[in-house]
Write a structure and sequence with these properties.
Layout (H helix, E strand, L loop, with lengths): L4 H10 L2 H12 L3 H16 L3 H15 L13 H9 L4 E12 L3 E11 L3 E8 L1 H7 L11 H17 L3 E2 L16
């Protein structure tokens, strides 16, 4: 059973300052998992605070700090930046792939990957979050009810693939699916 906002606030305020500072330090570094780990480590046995409630408490702290949190910079999706990044890859790029991923902070997002041969591997080219997609997909644009993250990732990934003369693969462009089939030559 989860705690309501008032109970979470009361619990938070009952913590020693050192513990609050440690948790807030992780929050300010945008390190949700470490904050949740500390909250459950100190809260599980004495207060029954599991991962779900710990995430709510951490979210309260994210809301408290807002823009002060050191977020990772937004990925650029313009072709010039992506092409410049691709030019620095060791190995031959054989495909550009878009894959769904998600977490408790960003919800669903898409990772754009360069698939390489000689050596075989994958290099992350960009991460397309909701905030990133909003810069590249206008509200008026007809997206056919598709997630803006998918539209932005597909547009950028397809442009890069065309620039590199390699295939573009996005197994599930219409529905978030982090287990969709991956690209195979």
């Amino acid at each position: 059973m989860g705690m309501n906002k008032a109970a979470r606030t009361e619990w938070w305020e009952s913590l020693p300052v050192g513990i609050r500072d440690e948790i807030d330090g992780y929050i300010l570094q945008d390190s949700l998992l470490m904050a949740v780990k500390v909250i459950t480590a100190i809260g599980l046995v004495p207060h029954g605070i599991g991962v779900g409630t710990a995430q709510l408490i951490a979210n309260d702290r994210y809301l408290h700090y807002g823009d002060q949190i050191a977020r990772e910079p937004e990925s650029l999706l313009d072709l010039e930046s992506l092409a410049y990044r691709a030019a620095g890859i060791g190995g031959r790029v054989v495909a550009i792939e878009a894959i769904w991923d998600g977490d408790t902070v960003h919800d669903w997002f898409v990772r754009l990957l360069a698939i390489t041969a000689d050596p075989a591997g994958e290099i992350q080219m960009a991460t397309v979050y909701w905030s990133t997609a909003q810069q590249y997909v206008s509200e008026q644009e007809d997206r056919h009810q598709r997630h803006p993250v998918a539209v932005a990732a597909e547009r950028a990934g397809r442009a890069l693939a065309e620039h590199l003369s390699v295939p573009f693969h996005f197994a599930s462009p219409d529905t978030p699916d982090d287990e969709a089939p991956r690209w195979h030559p």
